[in-house]
Design brief:
This protein is α/β, with parallel strands linked by helices. The longest helix is centred in the N-terminal third of the chain and has 13 residues.
Length: 148
């Protein structure tokens, strides 16, 4: 699978770990940076990863910052991107099954490398359930009418 990967300085170490893990697992990784622990602005990397996913250059994206919140907010500004913040293993499975999330946001302060490895595996391997969830996912897009 083609994976877009990005992090700010707070997520750099975890991003580097995940990059190695993904490549070892046979994935094609596009690393959008950052490439050091020098202070950076998280939206710069969120937009690069989200653009790659929205344009179809990558199938999924993974973003890492201190909390994961800023990354997920920034990535969700892109049409067709469904970035979701993970905070436990159950949520990671559900954000794929029910929400068809295509970008995973992680908070480096709250996620160990071992957890991140497992959560990313779940994110990449869990299918979207479709069915009633498909209708709901479509309503997330700008301009879609929701019915009560």
């Amino acid at each position: 699978m083609k994976i877009a990967l990005g992090a700010d300085h707070a997520g750099f170490s975890l991003k580097e770990f995940l990059c190695r893990e993904l490549e070892a697992g046979g994935h094609e990784v596009t690393d959008f940076g950052t490439h050091s622990t020098d202070s950076t602005d998280y939206p710069d990397y969120a937009h690069k990863v989200a653009s790659a996913v929205a344009e179809g250059r990558c199938e999924r994206g993974i973003l890492v910052c201190f909390t994961g919140v800023g990354m997920s907010i920034s990535a969700n500004r892109h049409r067709g991107v469904r970035a979701a913040l993970a905070y436990n293993a159950d949520v990671v499975e559900l954000l794929r099954r029910h929400n068809d999330a295509n970008v995973l946001a992680l908070g480096a302060k709250y996620v160990s490398p071992a957890q991140a490895r497992q959560w990313v595996k779940t994110f990449l391997e869990t299918p979207f359930d479709g069915g009633r969830h498909e209708r709901r996912v479509k309503k997330m897009e700008p301009g879609e009418q929701s019915s009560q």
